[in-house]
Amino acid sequence: MGKIVVVTTVIGIVLAILGERIIHFRKRVWASREIEQNHLPNCHLIKGIEYGSEDITILPSGLAFISSGLKYPQTPSFAPDSLGKIYILDLEDQKPRPTELRISRGFDVDSFNPHGISTYIDKEDDTVYLFVVNHPQFRSTVEIFRFVEEDYSLTHLKTVQHELLHNVNDIVALGPESFYATNDHYFTQHLLRSLETFSCLAWSNVVYYSPTEVKEVASGFYMANGINISPDKKYVYVSDVLDSAVHVMEMNQNYTLTPIKAIQLGTLIDNIEVDPETGDLWGGCHPNGWKLFNYNPEDLPGSEVVQIKNIHSEEPIVTQVYADNGSVIQGSSVATVYKGKLLIGTVFHKALYCDLE
Ligand SMILES: *[C@@H]1O[C@H](CO)[C@@H](O)[C@H](O)[C@H]1NC(C)=O
Ligand SMILES: *[C@@H]1O[C@H](CO)[C@@H](O)[C@H](O)[C@H]1NC(C)=O
């Protein structure tokens, strides 16, 4: 008798926990919106980008770096056998066309699987460093390159690997060899990763890396994804995609991050770009997580771009600037502005360039 009571109780508790987790997960990912079209004038797809433009970052000169061809667990890919690439797009051109950057010898291009990117410019000699999150064989490394503008090539300088950088999604460069990185999961093993997402465990974090010190500097995210820094380099912004929120954190001298506030957006925000002039944040967002994770050509995942103004004020202004139901562009993961134009990138689809007005 006693045994049966114990077993029934244990089963009951397990079911209760599971039920609570399912509700939690539904709230975060399934209960997603159908999207109304909110298009911009003069939009056109960038010819030549067909298999993703997951992250984009623009240099002050108008050169945009684009990471393409990501293969990632739980994420669709239209070209699972194609190699990962970094494209460059000169936004000063009337009709910008992407050029694939050549990568120096010695770097294993066959396993290149680029994800989040970030640049650092050395003020002394104008050297441009490109930091790329890479997933060779689904592991996580950070590759540091020097960009050679004369012949549009990348010279590979260093591969960074560290046990604390176990599931890196995005990075923001702080110096020629230092950065913050988000780990979007705690577990690396595929099944455990899925369980972690499903259970909505808040075990994802931000890590500081330099050649002399590596440490966790922020934690407690459901799925820390995009990361970027304010133009005055005082604040760091982290998107928690499963929480539909942007976290604002203050950078301390010892590189730890102090949480200031979180802004709820009601859409699954992926990468964050910061307008260097206004300090506005631009987010590439997924209005419907279920459609993204369970790709169905009959029921496409849409795209959404939000702008956040006055983020440090009492009342930040959040505006939906662009939205599409998937008929034009699917799975937007990044949005960034240059001289009155908006460039939208996607996890596995194309890239769109629009006039803002
Ligand atoms: C880092 O700096 C912050 C703010 O000054 C301080 O609260 C924290 O204790 C420091 N952490 C370490 C490990 O020194
Ligand atoms: C998306 O919107 C277009 C109109 O812009 C419409 O023709 C199409 O049917 C819509 N697709 C879905 C799946 O709702």
Automatic annotation (TrEMBL):
Its cofactor is Ca(2+). It comes from the Eukaryota. InterPro entries: 6-blade_b-propeller_TolB-like, Arylesterase, Serum_paraoxonase/arylesterase. The keyword tRNA processing does not apply. Ca(2+) 1 binds at D55, D170, N225, D270, N271. Glycans are attached at N254, N325. It is an enzyme of class 3 (hydrolase). Binds 2 calcium ions per subunit. The active site is at H115 (proton acceptor). Disulfide bonds join C43-C354. Keywords: Calcium, Disulfide bond, Glycoprotein, Hydrolase, Metal-binding, Signal. GO terms for molecular function: arylesterase activity; metal ion binding. Ca(2+) 2 binds at E54, I117, N169. Its EC number is 3.1.1.2. It catalyses: a phenyl acetate + H2O = a phenol + acetate + H(+). Glycosylated. Belongs to the paraoxonase family. This is Paraoxonase. It comes from Acipenser oxyrinchus oxyrinchus. The lineage of its organism: Eukaryota, Metazoa, Chordata, Craniata, Vertebrata. The gene is PON2.
